[in-house]
């Protein structure tokens, strides 16, 4: 990909930021499943890698990704044609 056009660079940056936010949100959602050290009370695994591994599982199959998106973001708003 040639990212010489500023619009393409902005689009790619928006895609990267959206993926990062989705990974962090998924990691926060599954934070209870991350083990906590009893001695220091810190988490063994950071939130982003946990969310990234979960999000990648959904991205490997388009059907799973669409189901995940509908479950997390609800039904899309349908606008009536005017």
Radius of gyration: 17 Å
* Cα distance spanning the termini: 39 Å
The rough form would be described as: extended
Find the count of extended strands (DSSP E, 2+ residues).
Answer: 0
Instruction: Decide which structural class fits the backbone.
Output: mainly alpha
Q: Let me know the average pLDDT.
A: 78
- Percent helix, as a range, is 55-70%
Strand content: under 5%
**What count of domains describes the coordinates?**
1
What is the number of helices? 3
Largest sheet: none
Name the poorly predicted regions: none
Give the ordered list of helices and strands. Answer: HHH
Give an overview of the whole structure.
The protein is built from 3 helices and no strands. It is an all-alpha fold. It has one domain. The longest helix is centred in the first third of the chain and has 24 residues. It is extended, with a radius of gyration of 17 Å. 6% of the residues are buried.
Topology:
Elements (H helix, E strand, L loop, with lengths): L5 H24 L17 H13 L2 H12 L9
Which short descriptors sum up this protein?
mainly alpha, extended, single chain, 82 residues
What's this entry about, in short?
The chain is mostly helical. The chain is built from three helices and no strands. The chain has one domain.
């Amino acid at each position: 990909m040639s990212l010489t056009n500023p619009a393409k660079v902005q689009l790619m940056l928006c895609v990267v930021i959206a993926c990062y936010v989705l990974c962090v949100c998924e990691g926060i959602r599954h934070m209870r499943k991350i083990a906590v050290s009893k001695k220091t009370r810190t988490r063994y695994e950071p939130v982003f890698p946990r969310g990234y591994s979960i999000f990648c599982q959904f991205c490997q199959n388009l059907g799973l990704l669409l189901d995940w998106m509908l479950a997390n973001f609800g039904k899309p708003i349908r606008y009536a044609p005017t």
